[in-house]
């Protein structure tokens, strides 16, 4: 039996870059379309695990394909910080993150050729320095935080705000590579 091909259920360029770091190039990329609204009382870990599996199941999988999907969110206490809807929302998020610790929770799901889903979630702790009004203005003006969970990209300018990180840097970026490789291997993906 031939090795299965990989389908990435994400159009995130960051996830493609992260996969390339571990030598994985998907055979194709598909854009999943699911409702990403958190459920009432849903924990951040349950939320990202549900979304990762939902995204993986939302794309068509051929008989000889594995599907991989991921989702990442930022949590302050029990509050899930989704992607900011506008600059005011981004400023609100940066205010919540300023000078305190928060959690970045990343979920990943691999569905093998038989249709079995394997899901993991990874929690990393990140602490931002206390942000001045000028730093918030600078970051908002960069446009980098729009479209990002929690309103920031750790792989970009926001890394200058991080005074502490415990956990997986790649998970904060958007895909926990250690867990991803293990899930792909368990799902039958052949690493060269």
TrEMBL record:
Query: Which cellular compartments is it found in?
Result: Cytoplasm
Q: Which residues form the active site?
A: 71
Q: Which UniProt keywords apply?
A: Cytoplasm, Hydrolase, Nucleotide metabolism
List the GO molecular function terms.
Answer: hydrolase activity
Annotated positions for site Important for substrate specificity: 14, 72, 155
Q: What is the enzyme's main class? A: hydrolase
Question: What is the required cofactor set for this protein?
Answer: a divalent metal cation
* Coiled-coil positions: none
What is the catalytic activity of this protein? dTTP + H2O = dTMP + diphosphate + H(+); UTP + H2O = UMP + diphosphate + H(+)
- Its chief place of residence is cytoplasm
Which SUPFAM superfamilies does this entry report, sorted A to Z?
Answer: ITPase-like (SSF52972)
Quote the PANTHER family the UniProt record gives.
BIFUNCTIONAL DTTP/UTP PYROPHOSPHATASE/METHYLTRANSFERASE PROTEIN-RELATED (PTHR43213), BIFUNCTIONAL DTTP_UTP PYROPHOSPHATASE_METHYLTRANSFERASE PROTEIN-RELATED (PTHR43213:SF5)
Q: Which family does it belong to?
A: Belongs to the Maf family. YhdE subfamily.
Task: Describe the task this protein carries out.
Answer: Nucleoside triphosphate pyrophosphatase that hydrolyzes dTTP and UTP. May have a dual role in cell division arrest and in preventing the incorporation of modified nucleotides into cellular nucleic acids.
Cited HAMAP family? Maf
Give the protein name, as stated in the record: dTTP/UTP pyrophosphatase
- The species is Sphingomonas floccifaciens
